[in-house]
Amino acid sequence: MNRQKLPEAILFDFDGVLVDSMHIRDLGYREIFKDFSIDLVNQLIKYHRINGGLSRYVKIRYFYEKLLGREISDNKVDQLAEQFSAIMRPKLKDRSIIINEALSFVKRCYKKIPLHIVSGSEQDELRCVCEFIEIGSYFLTIEGSPTSKNDLVSSVLSSYGYDSEKTILIGDTINDYDAAKSNKVIFYAYNNGSIKDLCDRYIYSFDEVFFN
Hints:
Blueprint: E1 3-4, E2 9-12, H1 22-32, H2 38-50, H3 56-68, H4 74-92, H5 100-109, E3 115-122, H6 123-132, E4 141-145, H7 149-160, E5 167-171, H8 174-182, E6 186-190, E7 201-203, E8 210-211
Parallel strand pairs: 1-8, 2-3, 2-5, 3-4, 5-6, 6-7
Helix pairs in contact: 1-2, 1-4, 2-3, 3-4, 7-8
């Protein structure tokens, strides 16, 4: 068992790290864009999967501006994001999507290490889901979009006075890596072998991660 020094705090991404929800998000994008070309929607799904840490606001705008080549107003983005959230909330209220080894790790750590969630998921939806699946009490803060991941991480560091070089961000996308590096925090990758070479440590299983 490889034990490491206790970090000052651990920041978790949500989708893909604490819950297995990517397929549910796929369905949401397919539903809100069901009247458009399936080929374009498939391109969006590909972008969404590569950039899991980005908010739906960014992805909706990407679909219009990059794939459709159309302008989209902030109001329209908000409207589509709300539609997306309405689809997500009932589908995400399912304890079967929890990644059990991650939750076991959280339960093992939360009394000795401050834990936070920094997610690309819409904040109200995120907090609602965490409450429903009964994991919210393990985290000091649960923060989501439309604030960017970079800014969420920066805000936690400044609000709590954590030393960035003693703080860990656990994520599964290149956007999580970027947020970690921008804020000079340690990056642990999980559930995505394509970013294994970028991280400070790759988590093959949370069962193998222990701190002194």
